[in-house]
Amino acid sequence: MDSQRSKIKIGLFGFGTVGKGIYEVLRKSKNAHAEIVGICVRDISKPRPGDVDKALFTDRPADILENPEIDLIVEVIDKAEPAFGIVKAALERGIPVVSGNKAMLAAHLPELIELQRRHDTALLYDASSCGSIPVIRNLEEYYDNDLLLEVKGILNGSSNFILSRVFDHGENYADALRRAQELGFAESDPSFDIEGYDSLFKLVIITVHALGVYVSPKDVFTYGISHIHDSDIRYAREKRVKIKLVAQVVKIGEDRFTMFVMPEFVGPSKYIYSVDDEYNGVVIRGECYDRQFMFGKGAGSLPTASSLLSDIMARQHNYRYGYKKMAYLTLPEYTTDVTLRVYVRYTTTNVPHVLRFSHIYEQFVSDESNYIIGDIKLSELIAKRPALDAPDLFLANIPLFFADKD
For the chain, which domains are there? Predict the structure, then answer.
Protein backbone atom coordinates (compact mmCIF):
# COMPACT_ATOMS: atom_id res chain seq x y z
CA MET A 1 0.00 0.00 0.00
CA ASP A 2 1.37 3.39 -0.95
CA SER A 3 2.04 5.33 2.26
CA GLN A 4 1.66 8.61 0.37
CA ARG A 5 -2.02 8.07 -0.44
CA SER A 6 -4.26 10.65 1.14
CA LYS A 7 -6.56 8.17 2.86
CA ILE A 8 -6.93 4.44 3.35
CA LYS A 9 -10.35 3.30 2.15
CA ILE A 10 -11.78 0.80 4.64
CA GLY A 11 -14.45 -1.84 4.25
CA LEU A 12 -15.85 -2.63 7.70
CA PHE A 13 -17.49 -5.95 8.59
CA GLY A 14 -19.62 -5.65 11.73
CA PHE A 15 -21.18 -2.65 13.42
CA GLY A 16 -21.72 -3.80 16.99
CA THR A 17 -19.97 -2.35 20.03
CA VAL A 18 -16.48 -2.54 18.53
CA GLY A 19 -17.57 -1.57 15.01
CA LYS A 20 -19.22 1.57 16.33
CA GLY A 21 -16.11 2.22 18.40
CA ILE A 22 -13.77 2.12 15.40
CA TYR A 23 -16.18 4.36 13.46
CA GLU A 24 -16.02 6.93 16.29
CA VAL A 25 -12.25 6.65 16.73
CA LEU A 26 -11.65 7.26 13.02
CA ARG A 27 -13.89 10.31 13.14
CA LYS A 28 -12.00 11.74 16.13
CA SER A 29 -8.46 10.96 14.94
CA LYS A 30 -6.95 13.83 12.94
CA ASN A 31 -4.00 11.80 11.74
CA ALA A 32 -5.59 8.47 10.90
CA HIS A 33 -5.81 9.27 7.17
CA ALA A 34 -8.45 6.58 6.84
CA GLU A 35 -12.16 6.53 6.12
CA ILE A 36 -14.84 3.87 6.11
CA VAL A 37 -16.44 3.63 2.67
CA GLY A 38 -18.62 0.57 3.25
CA ILE A 39 -20.09 -1.36 6.21
CA CYS A 40 -21.38 -4.92 5.91
CA VAL A 41 -23.89 -6.01 8.55
CA ARG A 42 -26.11 -9.05 9.07
CA ASP A 43 -29.38 -7.09 9.39
CA ILE A 44 -29.49 -3.98 7.21
CA SER A 45 -32.92 -2.98 8.58
CA LYS A 46 -31.64 -2.60 12.14
CA PRO A 47 -31.77 1.02 13.42
CA ARG A 48 -28.39 2.79 13.29
CA PRO A 49 -27.06 5.96 14.93
CA GLY A 50 -28.42 9.04 13.18
CA ASP A 51 -24.97 10.48 12.40
CA VAL A 52 -23.91 7.44 10.34
CA ASP A 53 -24.54 7.64 6.59
CA LYS A 54 -27.11 4.94 5.81
CA ALA A 55 -25.72 4.63 2.29
CA LEU A 56 -22.60 2.99 3.74
CA PHE A 57 -24.49 -0.13 4.84
CA THR A 58 -24.94 -3.38 2.94
CA ASP A 59 -25.77 -6.96 3.86
CA ARG A 60 -23.83 -8.42 0.92
CA PRO A 61 -20.15 -9.23 1.66
CA ALA A 62 -19.37 -9.07 -2.05
CA ASP A 63 -20.23 -5.35 -2.06
CA ILE A 64 -17.19 -4.86 0.17
CA LEU A 65 -14.83 -7.59 -1.05
CA GLU A 66 -15.31 -6.77 -4.74
CA ASN A 67 -15.13 -2.98 -4.35
CA PRO A 68 -11.91 -1.88 -6.12
CA GLU A 69 -11.85 1.33 -4.08
CA ILE A 70 -11.23 -0.53 -0.80
CA ASP A 71 -7.61 -0.85 0.41
CA LEU A 72 -8.20 -2.55 3.75
CA ILE A 73 -10.77 -4.82 5.39
CA VAL A 74 -11.51 -4.36 9.10
CA GLU A 75 -13.36 -7.38 10.50
CA VAL A 76 -15.09 -7.07 13.90
CA ILE A 77 -18.03 -9.48 13.72
CA ASP A 78 -18.84 -11.75 16.67
CA LYS A 79 -18.91 -15.19 14.99
CA ALA A 80 -15.73 -17.16 14.33
CA GLU A 81 -16.57 -19.14 11.18
CA PRO A 82 -18.25 -16.32 9.20
CA ALA A 83 -15.30 -14.10 10.19
CA PHE A 84 -12.85 -16.72 8.87
CA GLY A 85 -14.71 -16.82 5.54
CA ILE A 86 -14.46 -13.05 5.20
CA VAL A 87 -10.79 -12.86 6.18
CA LYS A 88 -9.84 -15.77 3.92
CA ALA A 89 -11.70 -14.25 0.95
CA ALA A 90 -9.99 -10.89 1.48
CA LEU A 91 -6.49 -12.38 1.77
CA GLU A 92 -7.06 -14.49 -1.35
CA ARG A 93 -7.87 -11.27 -3.19
CA GLY A 94 -4.68 -9.67 -1.89
CA ILE A 95 -6.57 -7.27 0.39
CA PRO A 96 -4.91 -6.72 3.79
CA VAL A 97 -7.07 -7.29 6.87
CA VAL A 98 -7.26 -6.00 10.43
CA SER A 99 -9.21 -8.25 12.81
CA GLY A 100 -10.03 -8.49 16.49
CA ASN A 101 -11.68 -11.92 16.38
CA LYS A 102 -9.65 -14.05 18.79
CA ALA A 103 -11.86 -17.17 18.46
CA MET A 104 -11.43 -17.18 14.69
CA LEU A 105 -7.69 -16.53 14.87
CA ALA A 106 -7.04 -19.19 17.51
CA ALA A 107 -8.84 -21.80 15.42
CA HIS A 108 -7.33 -20.92 12.04
CA LEU A 109 -4.01 -19.15 12.58
CA PRO A 110 -1.76 -21.65 10.72
CA GLU A 111 -3.93 -21.43 7.60
CA LEU A 112 -4.14 -17.64 7.87
CA ILE A 113 -0.35 -17.37 8.13
CA GLU A 114 -0.01 -19.51 4.99
CA LEU A 115 -2.61 -17.39 3.15
CA GLN A 116 -0.63 -14.24 3.95
CA ARG A 117 2.53 -15.78 2.54
CA ARG A 118 0.87 -17.25 -0.54
CA HIS A 119 -0.93 -14.05 -1.53
CA ASP A 120 1.74 -11.61 -0.31
CA THR A 121 -0.60 -9.65 1.91
CA ALA A 122 -1.02 -8.92 5.62
CA LEU A 123 -3.33 -9.75 8.51
CA LEU A 124 -2.91 -7.66 11.67
CA TYR A 125 -4.70 -8.48 14.94
CA ASP A 126 -3.20 -6.72 17.96
CA ALA A 127 -6.76 -5.93 19.05
CA SER A 128 -7.48 -9.65 19.48
CA SER A 129 -5.33 -9.96 22.59
CA CYS A 130 -5.66 -7.69 25.63
CA GLY A 131 -7.57 -4.80 24.11
CA SER A 132 -5.46 -1.65 24.30
CA ILE A 133 -2.20 -3.43 25.30
CA PRO A 134 0.11 -3.90 22.27
CA VAL A 135 1.20 -7.41 23.24
CA ILE A 136 1.47 -9.00 19.80
CA ARG A 137 3.58 -6.32 18.15
CA ASN A 138 5.90 -6.15 21.15
CA LEU A 139 6.42 -9.91 21.06
CA GLU A 140 7.08 -9.71 17.31
CA GLU A 141 9.50 -6.78 17.34
CA TYR A 142 11.06 -6.31 20.78
CA TYR A 143 11.12 -9.91 21.98
CA ASP A 144 12.13 -11.34 18.59
CA ASN A 145 14.67 -13.81 20.01
CA ASP A 146 14.80 -17.08 21.92
CA LEU A 147 15.52 -15.50 25.32
CA LEU A 148 11.84 -15.26 26.24
CA LEU A 149 10.86 -17.64 29.05
CA GLU A 150 7.28 -16.85 30.02
CA VAL A 151 4.21 -14.80 29.19
CA LYS A 152 1.64 -14.76 31.96
CA GLY A 153 -1.24 -12.56 32.90
CA ILE A 154 -4.84 -11.52 33.19
CA LEU A 155 -6.16 -11.57 29.62
CA ASN A 156 -9.89 -11.19 30.21
CA GLY A 157 -11.36 -7.96 31.54
CA SER A 158 -14.83 -9.35 32.30
CA SER A 159 -13.74 -12.11 34.67
CA ASN A 160 -11.21 -9.77 36.27
CA PHE A 161 -13.92 -7.18 36.92
CA ILE A 162 -16.03 -9.84 38.65
CA LEU A 163 -13.18 -11.07 40.84
CA SER A 164 -12.22 -7.48 41.68
CA ARG A 165 -15.72 -6.80 42.95
CA VAL A 166 -15.47 -9.94 45.09
CA PHE A 167 -12.02 -9.34 46.61
CA ASP A 168 -11.80 -5.53 46.66
CA HIS A 169 -15.43 -4.61 47.35
CA GLY A 170 -16.74 -7.57 49.34
CA GLU A 171 -19.51 -8.49 46.90
CA ASN A 172 -20.56 -12.09 46.47
CA TYR A 173 -19.89 -13.75 43.13
CA ALA A 174 -23.50 -13.69 41.88
CA ASP A 175 -23.88 -9.96 42.59
CA ALA A 176 -20.51 -9.20 40.99
CA LEU A 177 -21.47 -11.11 37.83
CA ARG A 178 -24.80 -9.27 37.68
CA ARG A 179 -23.03 -5.91 38.01
CA ALA A 180 -20.60 -6.86 35.21
CA GLN A 181 -23.56 -7.71 32.96
CA GLU A 182 -25.35 -4.45 33.80
CA LEU A 183 -22.24 -2.44 32.91
CA GLY A 184 -21.70 -4.33 29.66
CA PHE A 185 -18.46 -6.03 30.76
CA ALA A 186 -20.13 -9.46 30.61
CA GLU A 187 -22.73 -10.83 28.19
CA SER A 188 -26.12 -12.22 29.21
CA ASP A 189 -24.44 -15.60 28.61
CA PRO A 190 -21.06 -14.93 30.27
CA SER A 191 -19.57 -18.40 29.76
CA PHE A 192 -17.11 -17.30 27.04
CA ASP A 193 -15.39 -15.08 29.60
CA ILE A 194 -15.86 -16.78 32.96
CA GLU A 195 -15.11 -20.31 31.70
CA GLY A 196 -11.74 -19.12 30.41
CA TYR A 197 -12.27 -19.50 26.64
CA ASP A 198 -11.60 -15.85 25.86
CA SER A 199 -8.30 -16.07 27.76
CA LEU A 200 -7.50 -19.39 26.06
CA PHE A 201 -7.90 -18.02 22.54
CA LYS A 202 -5.74 -15.01 23.39
CA LEU A 203 -3.08 -17.29 24.89
CA VAL A 204 -2.98 -19.44 21.74
CA ILE A 205 -2.37 -16.32 19.62
CA ILE A 206 0.21 -14.94 22.04
CA THR A 207 2.11 -18.24 22.05
CA VAL A 208 2.58 -18.14 18.27
CA HIS A 209 4.28 -14.76 18.61
CA ALA A 210 6.08 -15.55 21.87
CA LEU A 211 7.58 -18.94 20.96
CA GLY A 212 6.78 -19.50 17.28
CA VAL A 213 4.57 -22.53 17.96
CA TYR A 214 0.86 -23.01 17.34
CA VAL A 215 -1.08 -25.17 19.81
CA SER A 216 -4.71 -25.97 19.08
CA PRO A 217 -7.13 -24.65 21.74
CA LYS A 218 -8.53 -28.17 22.26
CA ASP A 219 -5.12 -29.33 23.53
CA VAL A 220 -4.79 -26.67 26.26
CA PHE A 221 -6.13 -27.16 29.79
CA THR A 222 -8.70 -24.46 30.50
CA TYR A 223 -10.70 -23.99 33.70
CA GLY A 224 -12.76 -20.94 34.67
CA ILE A 225 -14.26 -19.27 37.72
CA SER A 226 -17.96 -20.17 37.45
CA HIS A 227 -17.76 -22.69 40.35
CA ILE A 228 -16.03 -20.38 42.81
CA HIS A 229 -17.67 -20.57 46.25
CA ASP A 230 -17.66 -18.47 49.42
CA SER A 231 -15.37 -21.04 51.03
CA ASP A 232 -12.75 -20.51 48.28
CA ILE A 233 -12.95 -16.76 48.73
CA ARG A 234 -12.67 -17.12 52.49
CA TYR A 235 -9.64 -19.43 52.13
CA ALA A 236 -7.90 -16.92 49.83
CA ARG A 237 -8.55 -14.04 52.24
CA GLU A 238 -7.17 -16.07 55.14
CA LYS A 239 -3.97 -16.58 53.13
CA ARG A 240 -3.90 -12.86 52.20
CA VAL A 241 -4.06 -13.58 48.48
CA LYS A 242 -6.55 -12.94 45.68
CA ILE A 243 -7.95 -15.36 43.13
CA LYS A 244 -7.35 -14.24 39.53
CA LEU A 245 -8.10 -16.00 36.25
CA VAL A 246 -4.61 -16.36 34.78
CA ALA A 247 -3.32 -17.54 31.39
CA GLN A 248 0.27 -18.71 31.14
CA VAL A 249 2.77 -20.01 28.61
CA VAL A 250 6.16 -20.97 30.07
CA LYS A 251 9.30 -22.67 28.79
CA ILE A 252 10.38 -25.82 30.63
CA GLY A 253 14.11 -26.03 30.04
CA GLU A 254 15.57 -25.40 26.60
CA ASP A 255 13.33 -27.47 24.36
CA ARG A 256 9.86 -27.73 25.92
CA PHE A 257 7.05 -25.42 27.02
CA THR A 258 3.62 -25.73 28.56
CA MET A 259 0.53 -23.54 28.72
CA PHE A 260 -2.81 -23.44 30.56
CA VAL A 261 -5.62 -21.18 31.79
CA MET A 262 -7.00 -21.48 35.31
CA PRO A 263 -7.75 -19.53 38.50
CA GLU A 264 -4.64 -18.81 40.53
CA PHE A 265 -3.85 -17.69 44.06
CA VAL A 266 -1.96 -14.43 43.55
CA GLY A 267 0.02 -12.82 46.36
CA PRO A 268 0.61 -9.08 46.94
CA SER A 269 4.20 -9.26 45.64
CA LYS A 270 3.02 -10.18 42.13
CA TYR A 271 2.43 -7.50 39.49
CA ILE A 272 -0.98 -8.89 38.52
CA TYR A 273 -2.22 -8.74 42.13
CA SER A 274 -3.09 -5.06 41.62
CA VAL A 275 -4.64 -5.47 38.17
CA ASP A 276 -8.27 -4.78 38.98
CA ASP A 277 -11.64 -4.03 37.38
CA GLU A 278 -11.78 -4.53 33.59
CA TYR A 279 -8.03 -4.08 33.18
CA ASN A 280 -5.59 -6.62 31.80
CA GLY A 281 -2.00 -7.13 32.90
CA VAL A 282 0.73 -9.13 31.16
CA VAL A 283 4.11 -10.15 32.60
CA ILE A 284 6.83 -11.05 30.09
CA ARG A 285 9.88 -12.82 31.48
CA GLY A 286 13.22 -13.41 29.77
CA GLU A 287 16.64 -14.80 30.52
CA CYS A 288 18.41 -11.44 30.46
CA TYR A 289 15.71 -8.89 31.26
CA ASP A 290 13.92 -10.62 34.17
CA ARG A 291 10.31 -9.33 34.18
CA GLN A 292 8.54 -6.61 32.22
CA PHE A 293 4.95 -5.66 32.84
CA MET A 294 2.26 -4.30 30.50
CA PHE A 295 -1.01 -2.92 31.83
CA GLY A 296 -4.11 -1.48 30.20
CA LYS A 297 -7.84 -1.74 29.59
CA GLY A 298 -8.77 -5.09 28.15
CA ALA A 299 -12.48 -4.59 27.60
CA GLY A 300 -14.71 -1.97 26.10
CA SER A 301 -15.50 -0.39 22.76
CA LEU A 302 -12.96 2.43 22.63
CA PRO A 303 -9.90 0.60 24.07
CA THR A 304 -10.36 -2.16 21.49
CA ALA A 305 -11.01 0.39 18.75
CA SER A 306 -7.79 2.23 19.62
CA SER A 307 -5.85 -0.99 19.08
CA LEU A 308 -7.60 -1.53 15.75
CA LEU A 309 -6.67 2.03 14.79
CA SER A 310 -3.04 1.30 15.59
CA ASP A 311 -3.10 -1.63 13.17
CA ILE A 312 -4.83 0.49 10.54
CA MET A 313 -2.13 3.14 10.80
CA ALA A 314 0.59 0.47 10.73
CA ARG A 315 -0.72 -0.60 7.34
CA GLN A 316 0.01 2.90 6.03
CA HIS A 317 3.66 1.91 6.36
CA ASN A 318 3.11 -1.59 4.95
CA TYR A 319 3.72 -3.21 8.33
CA ARG A 320 3.11 -6.93 8.63
CA TYR A 321 4.02 -9.62 11.15
CA GLY A 322 7.22 -11.44 10.27
CA TYR A 323 6.49 -14.56 12.35
CA LYS A 324 10.26 -14.61 12.86
CA LYS A 325 10.33 -17.22 15.60
CA MET A 326 8.57 -19.75 13.37
CA ALA A 327 11.71 -19.70 11.18
CA TYR A 328 14.03 -20.71 14.03
CA LEU A 329 15.85 -23.99 13.43
CA THR A 330 14.85 -25.39 16.83
CA LEU A 331 11.41 -24.63 18.25
CA PRO A 332 10.35 -25.77 21.73
CA GLU A 333 7.87 -28.64 21.92
CA TYR A 334 4.54 -28.37 23.72
CA THR A 335 4.23 -30.72 26.68
CA THR A 336 1.68 -31.50 29.38
CA ASP A 337 4.15 -33.71 31.25
CA VAL A 338 4.70 -31.12 33.96
CA THR A 339 3.76 -31.06 37.64
CA LEU A 340 1.49 -28.34 39.02
CA ARG A 341 0.45 -27.64 42.58
CA VAL A 342 -3.29 -27.13 42.90
CA TYR A 343 -6.03 -26.43 45.41
CA VAL A 344 -9.17 -28.50 44.81
CA ARG A 345 -12.29 -27.76 46.84
CA TYR A 346 -15.20 -30.20 46.75
CA THR A 347 -18.19 -31.49 48.70
CA THR A 348 -19.69 -34.71 47.27
CA THR A 349 -17.29 -35.49 44.41
CA ASN A 350 -14.74 -38.09 45.54
CA VAL A 351 -11.72 -36.03 44.47
CA PRO A 352 -9.07 -38.32 46.08
CA HIS A 353 -10.49 -41.15 43.98
CA VAL A 354 -10.96 -39.13 40.76
CA LEU A 355 -7.60 -37.33 40.64
CA ARG A 356 -4.19 -38.97 41.01
CA PHE A 357 -1.98 -36.68 43.09
CA SER A 358 1.74 -37.45 43.22
CA HIS A 359 1.94 -35.76 46.61
CA ILE A 360 -0.66 -34.28 48.98
CA TYR A 361 0.51 -31.45 51.23
CA GLU A 362 -2.74 -30.56 52.96
CA GLN A 363 -6.17 -32.09 53.25
CA PHE A 364 -9.16 -30.56 55.03
CA VAL A 365 -12.56 -32.10 55.67
CA SER A 366 -15.63 -30.34 57.12
CA ASP A 367 -19.41 -30.45 56.94
CA GLU A 368 -19.47 -27.46 54.55
CA SER A 369 -16.67 -28.38 52.15
CA ASN A 370 -13.38 -30.18 51.76
CA TYR A 371 -10.16 -29.33 50.00
CA ILE A 372 -6.88 -30.90 48.94
CA ILE A 373 -3.63 -29.14 48.14
CA GLY A 374 -1.29 -31.37 46.18
CA ASP A 375 0.99 -31.94 43.21
CA ILE A 376 -0.53 -33.32 40.03
CA LYS A 377 0.45 -33.73 36.39
CA LEU A 378 -1.08 -31.31 33.91
CA SER A 379 -1.77 -34.33 31.69
CA GLU A 380 -3.85 -35.81 34.53
CA LEU A 381 -5.97 -32.64 34.75
CA ILE A 382 -6.54 -32.79 30.99
CA ALA A 383 -7.48 -36.48 31.11
CA LYS A 384 -9.94 -35.88 33.96
CA ARG A 385 -11.24 -32.55 32.63
CA PRO A 386 -14.92 -33.69 32.32
CA ALA A 387 -14.97 -34.69 36.01
CA LEU A 388 -13.77 -31.21 36.99
CA ASP A 389 -17.03 -29.74 35.69
CA ALA A 390 -18.87 -31.09 38.75
CA PRO A 391 -20.76 -28.14 40.27
CA ASP A 392 -19.45 -28.86 43.77
CA LEU A 393 -15.80 -28.60 42.69
CA PHE A 394 -13.40 -25.67 42.22
CA LEU A 395 -9.77 -25.78 41.15
CA ALA A 396 -7.04 -23.16 41.52
CA ASN A 397 -3.35 -23.11 40.67
CA ILE A 398 -0.70 -22.46 43.32
CA PRO A 399 2.16 -21.08 41.18
CA LEU A 400 5.46 -22.96 41.10
CA PHE A 401 7.21 -21.58 38.00
CA PHE A 402 9.74 -18.85 38.90
CA ALA A 403 8.26 -18.70 42.42
CA ASP A 404 11.77 -18.09 43.81
CA LYS A 405 12.48 -15.22 41.42
CA ASP A 406 9.59 -12.85 42.21
Answer: 8-124 (3.40.50.720), 136-303+329-405 (3.30.360.10)
